[in-house]
Specification:
globular; 15% strand; 48% helix; Fur_C; two-stranded antiparallel ribbon; 5 strands; Arc Repressor Mutant, subunit A; 167 residues; alpha+beta; 6 helices; binds zinc ion
Length: 167
């Protein structure tokens, strides 16, 4: 479970990249430089980034090295690959993406995101019991859910503490 509070984040980046390499090896896929650099940007923060945020960040780095600019389509292609292989999640309400922080353990049926309105961070949580409940509700409706994601907006523990201290 990812904590919304500040933590040693270098560990998160290593874990995300390591898990992606392992998935690629297992499935015989290639984590190209482009895919890896997009994943690295997403893993570098728990604040979801839009495709254009990613493009801007990659292109400003390329500019420094006098390299050719990337087109948005190449970012979208990399994002599709990462999404399809469960390395990242799409946060619909923000039209943005975040690296999966449950890479080391199998995903439950439902992914829950707690999204902080103040600092923008997204915490990823899983619940077997909620997953089972949604499966039952869907079965009653003869609905076949695929990769359900629940987004819960609010204020994270860290932001709430800052608020009480200053008031
Ligand atoms: Zn982290
Ligand atoms: Zn995940
Ligand atoms: Zn917050």
């Amino acid at each position: 479970m990812i904590e919304l509070e500040s933590h040693d984040h270098s560990h998160c980046i290593d874990q995300v990249l390591g898990a992606a390499e392992a998935v690629c090896k297992e499935k015989g896929l290639r984590l190209t430089d482009q895919r890896k650099s997009v994943l690295k940007i997403l893993a570098a923060s728990h604040v979801p980034a839009s495709a254009y945020d990613i493009l801007d960040r990659l292109n400003s780095a390329r500019k420094e090295h006098a390299e050719a600019m990337l087109a948005p389509v190449s970012i979208y292609r990399a994002l599709d690959f990462l999404l399809q292989n469960g390395m990242i999640h799409r946060i619909e309400s923000r039209n943005a993406y975040v690296a999966c922080s449950h890479t080391m353990s199998p995903h439950s049926e439902i992914t829950i995101f707690m999204l902080c309105d103040q600092c923008g961070r997204a915490g990823e949580f899983q619940s077997e019991s909620l997953g089972g409940l949604i499966e039952r509700i869907a079965a009653t409706a003869q609905f076949l859910p695929h990769a359900p994601v629940m987004e819960i907006r609010g204020i994270c523990a860290e932001c709430r503490q800052i608020k009480t201290e200053s008031s």
